[in-house]
Amino acid sequence: MRVWKTFGRRGWDLGRSMDKITLSYGSGGVLTHKLVTEVFAAAFKNEYLDELDDSAIFDLGKGTYAYTTDSYVIDPIFFPGGDIGKLAVCGTMNDLASCAAEPKFLTAGFILEEGFAFRDLEKIVLSMAKEAKTQRVKIVAGDTKVVPRGKTDKVFINTSGIGTVQKRLAASMIKPGDMVLINGPIAQHGLSILLSREKFNYHAAIKSDCNSLWCIVKLLLQNCIDVHFMRDATRGGVSAATNEIADLCGYSLILEEKRIPVTAPCRNLADILGLELLDIANEGKMLFFVSARDSAKALRLLKSSRLGKEAAIIGSVLKEKNGRVYLKTILGGEKALSSPLTEPIPRIC
């Protein structure tokens, strides 16, 4: 989760059409926004939570810190490119990184189903340890609960993280003319999970993009790139992330479909299944809002890194102040790009 991962503050009056929570409330889209703002944020209201950012930012002593938490219920727990353990470490570190915070410490909580295989648990824990060590982050505390068979699904993990903020960013810093960059092809994670879960007979393998992104954030910050805002495009994909940002900053955005990087296997599979690529989750893609004068340099830096070789400038911020997102299609037309109402592929993180 972010401080709370939500769509934004636009406040669609959808009403509560049902009395029970449905899967759509966990989609990262419009209904998630309603759940977060009308239930959790309303009850827990404070100046840190009100920002609805990827992490809570606070000053303590002489330092500025970011604190975030996230829970992982992915199915399957092992997938091409990662597993629930690696995802739990990378996902929480990326929420810190999107706030320009260098990840330092994590905690981990496990809910285990009775009968879950020890060898699978050990594999997951070792994967977490490997990723944390690679990123020079320490897992310093944790908790474990075991519930009866059938009361959960194998293993659920919660991770929380603390990082040191290197630069203060805010949606309010976004300005007309800013360029929108992404560090690589979209939709790989969600489609990888779909193939792994449904066992489709598809001609090409699709590997999740699950990765820790602090290295590319650090690269831009160390080179004094004028970054105004960042967000990782996870649940709800680029559609949800950009709509959320437009709502927070108040300006409209325009994205260019032809500039958004997509691999051929992902594009073809999405076409076959009738899925919107921009709505599909990523776990290794960051959106950067950078001043126009620094955008070309930022792109060169991203392309010089392992996780940014296929980076692209995919859009810009408009002068229009109505907080909407537009997509310039490959055919040259324009259309509104909305946040997804539901998650096309549930349990992807």
Describe the structure.
With 349 residues, the chain is of the alpha+beta class. It has 2 domains: 53-165, PurM-like, N-terminal domain (60s Ribosomal Protein L30, Chain: A); 171-336, PurM-like C-terminal domain (Phosphoribosyl-aminoimidazole Synthetase, Chain A, domain 2). The protein is globular and about 55 Å long. The model is unreliable at 1-14 (pLDDT under 50). The chain has helices at residues 30-43, 84-97, 118-134, 188-198, 214-222, 237-249, 264-273, 292-303; strands at residues 56-60, 63-72, 78-79, 82-83, 101-113, 138-147, 155-165, 179-182, 227-232, 253-256, 286-290, 312-317, 325-328, 334-336.
CATH topology of the largest domain: Phosphoribosyl-aminoimidazole Synthetase, Chain A, domain 2
Kindly report the oligomeric state of this protein: single chain
Mean pLDDT: 93
Number of helices: 8
Tally of distinct domains: 2
The largest sheet has its strands arranged as 9-11-8-12-10-13-14
How do the SSEs run, as a string of H and E?
HEEEEHEHEEEHHEHEHEHEEE
Which overall shape is indicated by the principal axes computed on the Cα atoms?
A: globular
Strand percentage lies at 15-25%
**For the record, what is the CATH homologous superfamily label of the largest domain?**
PurM-like C-terminal domain
Largest sheet: 7 strands, mixed
Count of extended strands: 14
CATH class of the largest domain: Alpha Beta
CATH architectural label of the largest domain: Alpha-Beta Complex
Instruction: Please tell me how large the radius of gyration is.
Output: 19 Å
Helix content: 25-40%
Distance between the termini: 10 Å
Classification by helices and strands? alpha+beta
Low-confidence residue ranges: 1-14
